[in-house]
Amino acid sequence: MEVFIVRELARRIDQSTKPKVIVNCLTPGACHSDFAREMSGIGMYAFKAAAFVVARSTEVGSRTLVAAAGAGEESHGEYMADSKVSNVAPFVLSNEGAETQKRLWAELTEKLERIHSGIFQAV
What we know:
The model has no long low-confidence stretch (mean pLDDT 93). The protein has helices spanning 2-15, 41-54, 58-70, 90-93, 95-115; strands spanning 25-27, 79-81, 84-86. The chain is globular and about 50 Å long. It is mainly α. The relative contact order is 0.19. The protein contains five helices and three strands; from the N terminus they run αβααββαα. The protein is 54% helix and 7% strand. Helix 1 packs across helix 5 (95-115).
């Protein structure tokens, strides 16, 4: 969902006459954390075993955050993983994905406008 919203926001920023900002979205990947602190039983052990095998340190995961914050125009509206612009799922680029993107944007803006009228005037 985040990818669709960021892509639509970037598209609207590009069409706007307002000052431009770069927006992108990212994943730090699976990182070691206290995410499972509330889990118990076999689920906790399974989660911790999987994390042991695939998770990276939070320091390594945070590198993508830093890379995204400092990324240039090539990252605008893009998805970043492992500190670089990465491919999105084919669905995102499909016609159905474009429809989903428009629908999600409409739903989000409707809800946010109810909370704070005029919130999207800056875009």
